[in-house]
Each structure stands twice: as C-alpha cells, then as structure tokens.
Amino acid sequence: MSARGRCAKVLPSELNKVCPERGDDPATHPRKMSDFEVVPNLQQSSSSVSKSRRKAHFPAGSNEKENLISWIPENIRKKECTYFVESSQTSDSGRIICECGYLREQHLDDAAKPPIFLGKEWDPSRHIQEMPTDAFGDIRFTGLGQKTGKYVRVSSDTPPRVIYHLMTQHWGLDPPNLLISVTGGAKNFVMKPRLKNIFRQGLVKVAQTTGAWIITGGSHAGVMKQVGEAVRDFILSCSHKEGEIVTIGIATWGTVYNRESLVCPMGGFPAEYVLDEENQGSLSCLDSNHSHFILVDDGTHGRYGVEIPLRTRLEKFISEQTKVKGGVAIKIPIVCVVLEGGPGTLDTIYNAITNGTPCVIVEGSGRVADVIAQVANLPVAKITIALIQKKLSVLFHDTYELFTESKLVEWTKKIQDIVRSRQLLTIFREGKYGQQDVDVAILQALFKASRNQDHFGRENWDHQLKLAVAWNRVDIARSEIFTDDHDWKPSDLHPVMAAALISNKPEFVKLFLEQGVRLKDFVTWDTLVYLYDNLAPSCLFHSKLQKVLLEEREHTAGSKMPRLQMHHVSQVLRELLGCSTQPLYPKPKHTERPRLSIPVPHIKLNVQGSGLRSLYKRSPGRVTFTMDPVRDLLIWAVVQNRKELAEIIWAQSQDCMAAALACSKILKELAKEEEDTDTTDDMLALAEEYEHKAIGVFTDCYRKDEERAQKLLTRVSEAWGKTTCLQLALEAKNMNFVSHGGVQAFLTKVWWGKLSVDNGLWRVITCMLFFPLLYTNLITFREKRLQPMGCLARLRAFFTAPIVIFLMNILSYFTFLLLFAYVLMVDFQPTPSWREYLIYFWLFSLVCEETRQLLYDPDGLGVVKMASLYIKDFWNKLDICAILVFIAGLTCRLIPSTLYPGRIILSLAFIIFCLRLMHIFTVSKTLGPKIIIVKRMMKDVFFFLFLLAVWVVSFGVAKQAILIHNEERVEWLFRGVVYHSYLTIFGQIPSYIDGVNFNIDQCSPNGTDPYKPKCPETNADNKKPIFPEWLTVILLCLYLLFTNILLLNLLIAMFNYTFQQVQEHTDQIWKFQRHDLIEEYHGRPPAPPPLILLNHLQLLVRRGLLRRPATRHKLKEKLEKNEEAALLSWEMYLKESYLQHQQCQEKQNTEQMIRDIAQRVDVLAELLDLDWVKRTGVVEQRLGALEDQVHQSAQALRWMMQALRGNGFSSGEDVPPVGSSKALDTKEIDLEGRPEESQPPYHVLARNLLYPGSHTLRFPVPDEKVPWEVDFPLYDPPAYSADHKDMAVQDPFSLSLESLLKINYNTMDGLIDRQSFHGLYAVQDGLPLNPMGRTGLRGRGRLHCFGPNHALHPVVTRWRRNLDGSIIRKSLKKMLEVLVAQYPLSDVWALPGGSLEPGETLPLKLKWILRREFWPQFQNLLKQGTEVHKGYLDDPRNTDNAWVETVAISVHFDTQNDVEMKRLNSFLQGCDPELCIRWQVLDKRIPLHTNHKELLHKVSTLLGAYY
Asked: Which helix (H) or strand (E) holds 90?
C-alpha cells in the first residue's frame, strides 16, 4: 500500500524535497485538526487569471501562481479520517488498517488517541472532517516529455460552482460550447480496430470543432485510456494551436496510485508523477493524456466510485450555465457517450436519461453498451426479463453468475425505462447510413433530444440553431435544422446571423444568406453599432476607435468614456480611405440617430435566451436602416482582416468595383500601422486580391461595353463617400488597376479632350501654330456636332483639349527659359530691361497659377487639407523652391549693392526651373519611365553619399594631419580634407603626397599666400619633405581601393538593381503617374503663361464678385438615378459572370482537380462500404422475416394439430415437432423505422424509480410484472407515506392494521369519496390495491388518502386566430389555444386543475387563478362542457395503495366574441405573484405534464384540431 501524503506530517525539510521551489514556511508545520477552519463560501481572489489563454504552468513568482496558492486553500478542501477504528480487514501487506482503509501512521496525530466522546463505531459522517487541501498545481508525467496538466484534490462535498470557478478563472479554461461525458468500462477491453479508429477520430473531431470539454474517470485504463489515446493521437497529428483539447479526468483520490507525489501544501509547480502500471495493484494510475485532473477525496482509501456523485453534480451545474459568445446565449449542452461498461455504467446511463441528458451508445464496444444497443429498437413490451437474461449470459459470460434474480429484474426495469426514452438514446453503429462518424452521431443525438424536448413555439429550433453556430458545424445545420420540418423566416435568423458574423463563421453567414436573410433588412444602425462594439480587442481598427473615443472624452472634458457611435467609425474610415471621400456615416445632430431610409413595419422577434434579443426589438414606427448594408458589413469584415467573410459579403455587393478598390485602400493603410508581421503580410495579400477582383470585373465590363465601363470609372459613388473608382484606385496606389488597358484608354481619351485619339501629334502642333488649319480636314473630332467646318466650337474644343494646353504650356515654358537664359548671360543690366520685366511678369503668372492650384477646392476639403495635398507632390515642392529662390535673387538684384549675388541666386533659380522640365517629359512613353528610374536612383545616391563621406572625411583628416602642421585657414582646411580627397577619387592626386614630385614653389611655407596651400612638413636645411612618404602612399592606395573599386562598384550595383527592379514595373508606374499630369492639365486654364492671367482674372470675377461655385474639372460624373441603377445592375451581372468564371478556373486547376478526385475516391469507397453493410443488413432482415414466417406457420400448424386432436382425430404416432418456441427469441429484426407503440399497456410514470419529493427508491417493476395476477415472489416494495401538516384531512401516517381498519373503502367515507371510476378495487391487509397493478412502493406516498384520490382537470380551449379573426390552420387542421398555468416552485406548465379537497367541487389550484365571484359561473361552464376522460391518471405520485383518478372536461369557446370567454379572461387572476397564466398554442411539444398532454390529445381529437 502506498504511503499517504498529508499536510500535517510533512516537515519543512521534507517539503523542500517535494516542493523544491518553496523553503521553510510557517504554514507547512504540523497542525492539529482543530487548527483548520472550514470556509463554506467561495472566497473571491484578488485578481483573476485571464480566460483568453490556457497556460501549461505558472512561472515561478508570477502573480497568477501566488493568486492560486492563496485562493485554493481558502476554498478547496480535502477529507481526513480523525478517528482510528481497527478494521477486520488488512492491507495488501497484511498490516492493520482503519475502517477508512488507511494505516494508523497515515492518520492525524489526534486520531490515534483514546476516544473520549467520538464513540466506538466508526461513522464517516462523524469521523471524517474537512480541512484545506494539500495537493494542487501542475502535474508532470515523468518520462513522457513535456506532458503537463493541472490537478487539484477536492472534498467530495465541494460545491460544483467552486470547481467551475477554479477551472474557468484560475486554470484559464474558456467555458465549453459542449460537455461530453464519456463513461464505460473502467478496465481494459478490446475494441475492433476499425471501430476504435472511428471512435477516436470522431470524439476528438467533435471536441475540437465545437470547443467541447471531455470529462472521463481520468485513470489509465478502460474507456479513459481510449479517450486519452485519442487525444494524444490528435495532438501529435496537428499543430500546437489546433491540438488544444480540454480533457478533464475526475477520479477518486483514494484509488490513485503514487498520489503521495502530488502532495504539496504550497502547490506543486510542477509535481512529478510516475505512471507505474506494473506495481499499481488494485489502485489505478492517472492517464498522462488528460489535461486536467479533479481528484475527489472522501477520506477513504481504495474505494472506487466516490467521484460519481460529485461528477454528476458538476456536469449538471455546467450544463445549467449560460455561455454568451458572439451575441448568442446558449445553455451549455451535455451528452453522455458510452463504451462497454458494467453495472455502474448502466446506473450512469439511467441517471442521464432520467435527467434528460442524451446518450450515445457505441455498439460493438461490449457488455452494457451492446445489451442496450441490441434491444434499443425493440418495442418495450418485448424487452422481457428472459431476453435481458439471455443477452447478459452472452455479453457477461465471465461474470454472469454474479447476477442474482433481483439484479436481473432491476436491469430489465432500467433498460426498459432507457429504451422508452428513445428521443434521448442514439445508437452508433459502424457503417450505419448517414452516421459514419461518431462526431455526427453525438451532434445528431443532441439535436434529436432538443427537437423532442418540450418547448413553446420556436424556442426549440432557435436553441438547435444556436448550438450549431456555437459548434461551427454548418454540415449539421444543413442536415438537421434547415429541413422541411420547420419553416424559417428570414427575420428569425437575424440574431444568429449577427452571432456568426462576430464569431467569424463565414460558412454560417453563407448558409443564412441562402436561407433568405436580406442584408437590407438585417443591417440596421443599431446592428452596426453592436457589431463594432464587439470588435476583437486585438484588432488594429479597435484600437483606433478607442483612440478616437479618448480624444472625444478629452475634448469634452468628461470623465466617462463616450458611447461608440457610427460617426466615430466614419472618422477612422476617412483616415483610411483618404480625404477625397466624404464621411460614410454623418454625425447626427442633437444626438439623434440619422435616418437614411423610409419607415418600415414593426418587426417582432421572440428569441429566448439570446443576447441579441433586445437588438431586434423595434419600437413601433421607424426602424433605421443604413444606406448600403452590404458596404457596411464589408467594411466591418475587412477592417478585421476576415478574408472568407469579406469575400462572401463582397459577392453580394452591387457597387462591387468601388467596394473592392476601397477594401484594398483600407487594408493597405491598416498594414502600414500593423505591428505584427504576419498580419501585415495577410492584409497586403488580401488588398492585392481585392485589386485583382476589381480588375477582373472591369475587364469583363470593358469587353462588353467600353463606354459604360469607362462610366464606372468616373461615376460618383454615393455609398463610398462621393468618390469614384478611379480616385479610389489612385488613393490606394493600385498600379495594376490604373495600368489596365481600359483605364489607360479612358485617360488617353481625357488627354485628347474632344479631339479624336488617332490625330497625329504633328497635326496638333501644326494646327496650334496655324489655327486656321482647324477648319480643314487636318484635325478630326470625336463629337459629330463639331464636324461642320464653320463651327466656332471647333476652335474652343481644340484649345481646351488637355494635350493642346500641355503643348502650349511647353512652348510657353521653353520661351520663358530661353528668355531667362538670355537675360542672365547677355542682358543683365543694373537697371532691368523690358525683357527682364517680361520675365518678372511671366513669373508672376506662374505664381498665380500655383496659387490657383493651392486654393482650388471643389470638394470643400478646406485650405489646410488642400495645402497638405499640394505639398505632398514633389513637383509642387520644386515649383515653390524655384519661385522662392527667384524671389530671393530678385530682391538682391534690385538692391545695387547686392547686384552680383542677385545674379548668382537667379542663376541657381534657372537650374531649378530647368529641372522642372522633367515633369513635362513624364507624359512621354519613352522618357517618362526613364525619369522614374532616375528618381529612384537619386535615393540610392543619397545612401551612397553617406558611405562615401565616411571614407572621404577619414582619409582627408588623416592626410591633412600627417602632411600639414597647423593650417588655420578654414577654406584651405575644407579643400584639403574634403575637396582634394573627393577629386582624388577621379584621378586628381595631389603632387605633394609623394615626396618625389614635391615642388616648394606650388605651396606657401608659412601659409600666408591666400592662393596657395600651406607646404607640408619640410627639412629646414634643404627644404625637403620629412613626412613619412611610405605611410601616405599606403593610405592613398587603400583609399583608392575602397572608394574607386569597392564603393563605386557598389553604387553601380545599386543602380543596376534599382534599374532591373523598376524596369519590370516601369510601364505600370509610368501609366499610374501619367494620371496626375493628365488630371492637372484637364483642369488647367487653357491659356499658357503669361496669358493665363486673363483666365485667373475671369476666375476671380466669377468666384469673388458673382459668388459662383467652383467648377468641377475633376474626373467625376454624377449620373441620374435611373441611369446609375441600370449601370450598377449591369456591373452586378458581369460580377456574377466573373465569379462563375473564377470558380471554373479553380476547378480546372490541376491541384484542385487532384483534390476533387481524391475526395470522390474517398466518397466512393465509403459508399462501397455502406453498400456492403446495407446488403448484409438486407439479407439479415430477409432471414429474420423468413424466420418470423416459419414461426407463424409453426404456430398455425400446432393450433391445427391441437384442434384435430381435441376432436378425436389424433393418431398413435408421435407428433412431429413443428418449430421451436425459441425462434422468436433468437431472431434479430431491425425495427428502427417502426413507429413507437401508441400507448403503453401499463402505467409508466407511477413506476419511476425515484419517488418525487423524497429520497425513496421504488422497487423495480418491469412491464411484465405490473399486473397483480402475475406471480412476482421477489416483490418487496418499501413503504412511504408523507405527513402533510398543511392538510386538514389525510389518512394515517403509519401502516398499522388498527388505524387502517377504520377506513371504509369502495364507498363514501365521510366527506372523502373512496369510490373508484373503475368499479370495486381489492383490499389486502387493510390496504387497497392499485387497479392498474404494481408501482414498486407501498403506502400513500404524497397523496392524502388511501385508494382513489379524485381530481378535476378542466381543459379550456379556443381557436387560434389571425389579426383579421380568421382561424389559423396547420396541416389543414385548425389550431387550438389552451389555458395553462405555471404554479410556484414548478418548472413546467399544467392545466388549471388538480386534486379535489373533500367536499369541494372545484380544485384549490383552479381557485387560485379565478376570482371568487366567477366560481359559480365556471361550474356552469363545466356542466356545459364535454367529458373527455374519467378514470385512472398515470401520476408519478401513485403507489400500490393510493392513486389519482380524474375527470377531464373540455370547455371550448368556438366564437371569437364569446361573452363567457371574455368574462373568463376578465376574471383570471393570480393570488401569488409567481403564478403565471397564459393562452398557449396547442402542440405536442409544449412543456406540460405528460399525463396532461394525454388529456390535451383527447381534446384535440374530439374537436378535430391540430396536435
């Protein structure tokens, strides 16, 4: 027997061995049990552990670890035996043990002392006490790599909420979407290899896809080992991120082998655990593949099953929790999966079914699982004791002799009850059609249970859909939810649609769109705010929104963070899209939400338990919908970089090209600020993908109709901030899009204005110089109205064409430069000449044009924004620089004393003006790309100059210091250090570096000659240089080596790389930058400088005096609504064509074809397997049917022979055998499709094992043993009679014969009516016998009288009607509404009736809901009603000696204006505030008592209504 580790016996020296991280601590010294105090309530920790991530173990000294160490001892307890009582049994080693199973030395010090008041007999309730736990932390399995999990030792009485708090808050587990409780054999068993693989793969698949917790027994044996190995195989085959499966083992502390290694009072971080199966004996080891362990301690050793009650309570507690994720609230569902198993497993299944937990039985795993699986499809009447006995003898052949007769009866009863709840039972059979995987079987079991669960209206279907969304199983939703059984309204799907969006489940979004969800109806203003409120905190857009809200709070000087509104989102979006777009969501005035649509009708949604329910509750009147819902959802998805979701939404968009370009722009801007490299790469890749989408759609449009495609480029998109597709592409720098042939053709058309594109350039220049040639056929125009020769508009059209304006500006600019050069070189007089004045006037016109460009603001962006946009352009910077330098030179030139410096400055200005010529040449297809390459190379030069400066300065300073002593002239220092060193690179080597070429006449010995450098160090005698020539020569050689060879070749290599890199994209870059020049001259005044001043004067008069708005010269076109709608419809049609073409291309892709073929082969193989299974099943069915026919024939022949023998036709010969009576027992018939028997032959509710309202268990009574006539020697039911202190009249509590003889049965006994509707009933030993048979319990139970207890149940109904008064029908039958009530302390609804008190005519519960003055009238209604049932009522309270008999009367109001119905409604009341009354639609799934449903079914049959 292993030694037992205890907190009280661990000394500090020993503690260092067990917990090496801790030293001496006062808390670790031995203490008496009186030192411990029980803390019954949950103590909140000072800080909670983050739920978002799970950690393998806490780092030493971390806050989380300290928090756990302080929290667990305060809230988690263990159990210790405090009184040693010697047991009659001994340990495995033959030593004396206590009744608890532990040795004497394993007890506390006080436990071995002579007892004073504890008593002599060992009593667990008295002699086992709780104290703080001493085993928790991280468990590491030695020899198995880095397998680390969490563990804790808990008392068996620990509240489940404490354990759940530990798991979610301190262990960092996310609440599960599903709880899978795996139960079965605790010993190793053999499964078929194929079934084992299917089970393992299916279990981990459902856990991984749904985010489930798997709960097992935690030991390394049996079904727990199977689960652990399944998780292990999955983790090994998946990445670290995908391989996180929560597997919780709940085991008994007293049966864990090597548990002493887990004892550490201050926590084991980690505790080393050795898995030793060879020496474990009767104990068991923990399974190394589980992630968490809850070790349940009841203070005993070696007793299995201690953990079952706590596990049951914990699973029930978790299943009652509500998880809110993505706006949808679901109660955590639970499913029980059964493999193999023994008696304990049968109890687990029975308890699960009783509690409404669906169970999945894996057939073929053995023992209990196979017993249930083999009888699950049989009618309950055929599940007999003999059949169960036969199954047990086959499947439990090793332990069959242990089954007593009473145990067989108990098993039969439990199996009958399990099979009776078919809606909760799912049998997984290998190869069963439609159920190839365990994960599908598990999820289908939950849906089947949910579908058959009682509910009001749509609650059940909503719950199923929420489960499917939470599990992200769209395949299950398609096959199980969206079927013909239920008609889904699009509005019903709005809450789960929002949940699917928030939780990023694109397949569900696609499914909901297929099911008819209209984004126009779904996306409201409140929905958008809700979606942006639920952005992922790690999202960059979320942080930008928070920054905007913080700025607003600081601006308003408020202490509270402002609520997120859509204008905040618009503010961030405008930063991303650029200032060329208007705000997408305008800021509301006076805190009113902007309304962008017409009023819509009131929408009602009844979404039970949903976090989105309030979002879709609309006040009557207006509902605020957005302008473009697809755009809004697309932006929301794109800013979070959700590729699949955005692609689905983009496919729904109408203005798809603008949407794609806008997405590209947003993603590129976000990528600039994103810190995570992987996210940045994903964003850029997605931005490029959207650019390709825009190109693809535009290509199809351009092929169909060039003119309409070009209209799409310049159409003002109201949805995207009144910008255009072309402007969005330019803002996003989408060079591929702008360089598209269609876009370039459009730009070329704009460049040529109203002229034909095929006009030669020489023709344009000729007509520009000799404009009368315009009236010849030398120039052609695109518009027919300009074709007439005498048309004056030809002249205007020609000179307003951008290409003509450009050529005239070139001519003007060259004239300006020639005149400027002439003045600088020839005509620069002290007094300016007329030519120089002409230059000044010319420059003034250039300044006026730059000012016009700066202030031109047709979009109303503001002067500051226009100035920033103006400065961003490189050529504008160059213009400003040239003008400022010219003004500086002009200022100096006009001052006589600075005339010459003025000319110098003007010369520099001339250089800058000449550089400005490069901008003019960018329009050339030949020179333009070269200018781009030059600009890129200039950047390389600047980086190169930095490297070169290091060598030049280092060599220059060293050379100057070695050669020349104390040169004080700054200009010569600069020459010697920088200038001469720089010229040396190009071969101009100074002669004085080498003493051989030294000439003293070329230098100044004292440095006094301003025109000569100072001489080097020389000899005073012969004036020869004395500096070390060998050193200067070596330095010069090294300098030339690194600069001439290394650095210059590096510069050449950089130029070459830049050239090759740019050359590949030069054409695209040139086409992209060509737009700026075209747009500039498209909006430029037609006259060239200096005549452009006339245009400026005209503009000044129009804007300043006449107050006319600025003319939009930009490439924008505002279309009429009808034309725009037609254009967008055409674009959307071609977008669909583009998407179909893309899908075809993907299918034709070689890799995709290989994947498709592989998938088809897999499907074909599965179909072949299924076909084989189905063929085998068909043969078995035919053989079974043949056996059935042979058996029937044998019975008929036997009857015929008996009849003949009875009539004297027998012969002396022996009668031949005619079939075996056991044939029926041996046949196997698949009855899965067989309908369940309509009505059980015996009472069922009255035989539930647990009697309601007590802890009394009934004696198990199988169906065949119910009738009193059937002999049942084993029948020994317990007796139970409740004492109703609140009842004035009740039969005696005891079953003494003296008190029972005072009761008169089968007659009126005073006020108590003891007559049965079924006639006389038998009385045995002073007790009446239930006329319907045995119930498994004697006494009167919770009923107040022996014999019949009479009740009255009025069934008040009316027709369900529409608003117009017409009766609603379903399946061609009228629908009813029934009056139901929910009484206090009850979870279910019931008919308004109940037991009749002695002498009363109306039940007390009925009086609760009716006012006293209406009681007589209601009695009249009952007299006029129709009796639908009179007799025995199958009630859970019934016993062998007391039962309920009721009269059910149907009170139906046929007309809508029935006076009595109105009076009834007016007199309905609730005497208790917790009493609820309602008219409920009659349906077989409403949550009502089962026996009440039978009454409703009879009423609906009577009225011919839907049920």
From this structure: strand 86-90
Cα 297 to Cα 251: distance, rounded to the nearest angstrom: 9
Q: At what angle do helices 566-577 and 540-556 cross, to 10 degrees?
A: 120
CA proximity to 1451, closest of 1360, 1359, 1354, 1369: 1354
Q: Give alpha helix (H) positions in 515-615.
A: 519-522, 525-533, 540-556, 566-577
* 1468 dihedral zone (left: phi>0; alpha: psi -120 to 50; beta): beta
Beta bridge partners of 717: 723
Report the first-to-last Cα separation within the chain, whole angstroms.
64
Q: Of 180, 175, 156, which Cα lies nearest the Cα of 164?
A: 175
Q: In the chain, which residues have pLDDT < 50?
A: 1-61, 117, 240, 433-434, 457, 591-614, 616-623, 1212, 1214, 1218-1238
Contact 506, 645 (CB under 8 A): yes
Hunting for tokens 């365990």 — which residue is that?
438
Give the pLDDT score at 35. 36
Short-list 300, 260, 265, CA closest to 276: 260
Task: Let me know: does 830 contact 778? Beta carbons within 8 Å.
Answer: no
Helical ranges in 181-274 per DSSP H = 193-210, 222-237
**Contact present, 721 and 574 (Cβ < 8 Å):** yes
Amino acid at 1468: L
Whether 1482 and 1358 have beta carbons less than 8 Å apart is answered as: no
Residues of 274-288 as b/e, b for ≥16 C-beta within 10 angstroms?
Answer: ebeeeebeebbbbbb
| pLDDT at 248 (0 to 100) | 94
Residue 1204 C-alpha from the chain's centroid:
77
Rounded distance, CA 197 to CA 230, Å? Answer: 8
Provide the token pair at 179.
């709880």
Instruction: Please choose, from the candidates 1180, 1189, 1176, 1264, the residue with its C-alpha nearest in 3D space to the C-alpha of residue 1223.
Output: 1189
Of all residues in the chain, what percent are helix, strand and coil, respectively (each to 5)? 50, 10, 40
Phi-psi group of 681: left, alpha or beta (phi > 0 → left; psi -120 to 50 → alpha; rest → beta): alpha
Q: Give the side-chain half-sphere CA count within 13 A for 1138.
A: 23
Bridging pattern class, strands 178-184 and 1394-1395 = unpaired
- The one-letter amino acid code at 1117 reads E
Unique residue bearing structure tokens 């090294």: 1038
DSSP H helices in 1318-1387: none
pTM attached to this predicted model? 0.69
- Kindly write down the DSSP assignment for every residue of 302-345, as one continuous string: S-TTTHHHHHHHHHHHHHT-EEEETTEEEE--EEEEEES--HHH
How would you classify the pairing of strands 1376-1382 and 1347-1359? antiparallel
Token digits for 649? Answer: 């939404």
Apex CA 380: angle with CA 374 and CA 386, to 5°?
Answer: 65
For 1276-1330, how does the pLDDT look when each residue is reduced to its tens digit (9 = 90+)?
999 998 877 655 567 776 667 777 778 888 898 888 889 999 899 999 888 899 9
Phi, then psi, of 1327 in degrees rounded to 5: -120, 135
Phi then psi for residue 1205, to 5 deg, are: -65, -35
Q: Are 393 and 367 in contact (CB under 8 A)?
A: no
Cis preceding-peptide flag for 270 (omega within 30 of 0): yes
Count CB atoms within 10 A of the CB of residue 1105: 8
CB atoms within 10 A of CB 348: 22
d(CA 1165, CA 1159): 10
* Per-position b or e across 730-767, b if 16+ CB within 10 A of its CB: bbbebbbbbbbebbbebbebbbbbbbeeebeeeebeeb
Cβ contact 1015:920 at 8 Å: no
446 contacts 333 by C-beta, under 8 angstroms: yes
Q: Are 155 and 130 in contact (CB under 8 A)?
A: yes
What's the confidence (pLDDT) of residue 314?
92
Distance CA 80, CA 59 (A): 31
